[in-house]
Specification:
It comes from Granulicella cerasi. The protein has helices at residues 43-50, 72-78, 94-104, 109-122, 138-150, 168-183, 195-201, 219-234, 243-250, 255-260; strands at 5-14, 17-27, 32-36, 58-63, 66-67, 79-82, 156-160, 187-191, 204-209, 212-218. The protein is an alpha/beta fold. It starts with a strand and ends in a 9-residue tail after the last helix. The structure holds adenosine-5'-triphosphate.
Length: 269
Amino acid sequence: MTPAISAQGLTRTFQNFTAVDHIDLEVAPGQFFGFLGPNGAGKSTTIKMLTGLLGPTSGSIRIMGNDLFANPLEVKRQIGVVPEGMALFGKLTATEYLEFVGQMYGLDRQTTRQRAAELLEFMDLANEPKKLLADYSHGMGKKLALAAAVIHGPKVLFLDEPFEGVDAVAAGTLKSMLQGMIGRGATIFLTSHVLEIVERLCSHIAIIDKGHIVANGSLEELRAGVQAKLQTEQGAQTERLTLEQIFLNVVGKDSAEHTAHEGELSWLS
Ligand SMILES: Nc1ncnc2c1ncn2[C@@H]1O[C@H](COP(=O)(O)OP(=O)(O)OP(=O)(O)O)[C@@H](O)[C@H]1O
């Protein structure tokens, strides 16, 4: 089966610093894929490259079988993106913004209007229709960005920290929307530091650390790998590991290391 997302040897250098270093990624159609890593690991840089927002230094990218660099427009029609720290047009209302985005994707006026209204209702953003985006809170902006990313019904959705700053009610709404999309065959590539949400949503996970992929597989494969390693080290059966425990183990910041740092910052009362 043609992968929904495929990247080979993807690399991005900033001056003499390599943020993403020859990574390979493959995401099958219909997968809910979590892309995890510590701060500064290279997640946003990777998402920006996969969605054509940032040119790679080297490497190749195919989305639904289309080469991103040979067919950028074809790829952009099929994907939706919520990038890191995106700026909205402050002088527009949410409806104007969604209608603008819908028309950019070539939707007709009536479809755009109907979808914009449905999305605003769904995101609980419909009750202040005159509010300008400049006056939106951070979480409201995030919900609107997600609405804009799905208005054209993308087959592949890239989300950089979609739950950041979003309240618990809205997070529940977003989760059910994303699960509904997966149920209808979409592919979702998501970064998030909220590991409980990733554990609940994602079937497959890759972990990037200092620009390198250090784990990649189904959640169960990652769990089995870490569990086997701990069993060898500790000689005892471990309990079923959470994604947080798996993550801490893979990126090498286990509880022992935390304890060792406890004596530091002793000037903090
Ligand atoms: N435009 C840039 N110029 C120079 N360095 C950059 C640039 N963009 C990213 N970097 C560096 O690349 C590395 C990876 O950054 P990136 O934003 O991809 O990390 P991240 O995994 O998304 O982190 P976080 O979880 O903190 O958002 C960091 O060291 C960052 O400082």
